[in-house]
Amino acid sequence: MDYEFHWNVVFQNMPQLLNGAFVTLHVSVLAMLLGVVIAILLAIAKMNNTKFFSQVATVWVEIARNTPALFQIYMAYFGLGAFGIHLSPYVAVLSALVFINAGYLTETFRGGFQSIPSTQYSASKSLGMTSIQSYRYIILPQMLRRIYHPMTNQFVWSILMSSLGILVGMSELSGTTQRLQSLSFRTLEFFIVAAVMYFVITKLVLFGSSLLARRLFKGEI
Amino acid sequence: MNSLFTPLSWSDSGLILTGVWNTIIISVVAIVVGTVLGLIVGFLRAESNKAVNVLFGSVLDVLRSVPLIIQLILFSTFVGAMGNPLAPFVAGSIVLSLYTMAFMSEVFRSGFESVSPSMQIAARSLGMTKWQTIYHIRLPIGLRAVFPSWLGVSLSVIKDSALVSVIGYMELLRTSEQLISRTQQPLEILIGVGIFYFIISYPLSHYGRYVERKMAI
């Protein structure tokens, strides 16, 4: 083995890497929040009786689920250029992630909603609850319990997939790593550190999510 | 006046077909190798005691929690720095297969664990040997139960194979990227690429959901 590791340059550039990690986290949080909002709308649209709405939702879901994430990012970054829309790398990656998150979460939400028997709604109505009350106290808490884990997985997935920003020159964790290694040629060192950082971020998110679950659901999940 | 860019023409179809072929071949390799390794690891994990499980689990956990793109770059620079660089196809197949294995092993483990112990005891009491129990009882029942999840992982591998382009493998998305930089017609080319992935993935994912629904009843 004639490769010598030089870690100094990595430690000197730590602030930039941490900054990249922050951008990674921030783009995936944003992608998740927007994805959830759109997915709720799409799930409602998909269960709607108006054919137009349910078809729009179906097309969105199927495209998002059946094409690679990299394809979506290229589409946002290069493809939209044909319409004169030029997105920055950040916005391109964000919109691709939002698109995919929304697609996957729609099915999660719909499945979660349909797994609650409608008799529970009737039962709560017969107990004298209003519509809003039965959703607030009966339907939604149970639904949240069922979709919590799939949602956490989706969030972890978007953190990992935001690493594709490297291919369109975005300055999140892997993009920053790529830029720094091209300045110093310490490719291995930089990418090892990046891998460790992704691992730590993922683990922290999973840990935080299980803490939150314990608080929200009091252990019964 | 001659433009710097030449539009898309029929003579490009050879290049596109090479990309399609390369995507198919690397996905098939990764799915086959990943399934075989995943089956072995999944079985060992279902069988073994807690200490071995934790060890196996943490290695697999790393493969699942580091982005595939970072794993690809790390592996190909690592073997390069060690003095024997591998061809993009070989390096890509190794990383993608291991990545697939990490997900497949979980799928198969849950399959093996879904076969109830009493069924195994019943098989043993009928005079089957340990291997006969595995071969005739646990494998068929366990594998049937996880077929939809197996299909799901395989489909995501086909989609993830697009990432092997970062280490220089000429799969479909990379050939299309090169065509885009020559022709400056991103939309037409990308839509074509999207349709290709969609045609493969859509029917299979529907079939998976159909099987799942059929088994649930």
Automatic annotation (TrEMBL), chain A:
Principal location class: membrane
Membrane topology: Multi-pass membrane protein
Annotated ABC transmembrane type-1 domain residues: 21-209
GO CC, alphabetical: ATP-binding cassette (ABC) transporter complex
GO MF term set: L-cystine transmembrane transporter activity
Matches recorded under Pfam families: BPD_transp_1
Keyword Transport attached: yes
Membrane keyword on record: yes
Keyword terms of this UniProt record: Amino-acid transport, Cell membrane, Membrane, Transmembrane, Transmembrane helix, Transport
Ranges annotated as spanning the membrane: 20-45, 74-100, 151-170, 190-213
Subcellular location: Cell inner membrane; Cell membrane
Entry's family note: Belongs to the binding-protein-dependent transport system permease family. HisMQ subfamily.
Cross-referenced PANTHER family: L-CYSTINE TRANSPORT SYSTEM PERMEASE PROTEIN TCYL, MEMBRANE COMPONENT OF AMINO ACID ABC TRANSPORTER
Protein's name according to its UniProt entry: Amino acid ABC transporter membrane protein 1 (PAAT family)
Organism: Marinobacter pelagius
UniProtKB/TrEMBL annotation, chain B:
Membrane association type: Multi-pass membrane protein
Record-stated family: Belongs to the binding-protein-dependent transport system permease family. HisMQ subfamily.
UniProt-recorded name of the protein: Amino acid ABC transporter membrane protein 2 (PAAT family)
Domain of life: Bacteria
Major localization class: membrane
Gene3D superfamilies per the UniProt record, alphabetical: MetI-like
Keyword terms of this UniProt record: Amino-acid transport, Cell membrane, Membrane, Transmembrane, Transmembrane helix, Transport
PROSITE patterns: ABC_TM1
InterPro entries named in the record: AA_ABC_transptr_permease_3TM, ArtM/GltK/GlnP/TcyL/YhdX-like, MetI-like, MetI-like_sf
Annotated TM spans: 20-44, 51-74, 86-104, 145-169, 189-205
GO MF annotation: an example: L-cystine transmembrane transporter activity
Pfam families the record matches: BPD_transp_1 (PF00528)
Organism: Marinobacter pelagius
CDD domains: TM_PBP2 (cd06261)
Matching PANTHER family: L-CYSTINE TRANSPORT SYSTEM PERMEASE PROTEIN TCYL, MEMBRANE COMPONENT OF AMINO ACID ABC TRANSPORTER
Keyword Membrane: yes
Listed SUPFAM superfamilies: MetI-like (SSF161098)
Record domain ABC transmembrane type-1: where: 20-208
GO cellular component labels: ATP-binding cassette (ABC) transporter complex
Localization, UniProt: Cell inner membrane; Cell membrane
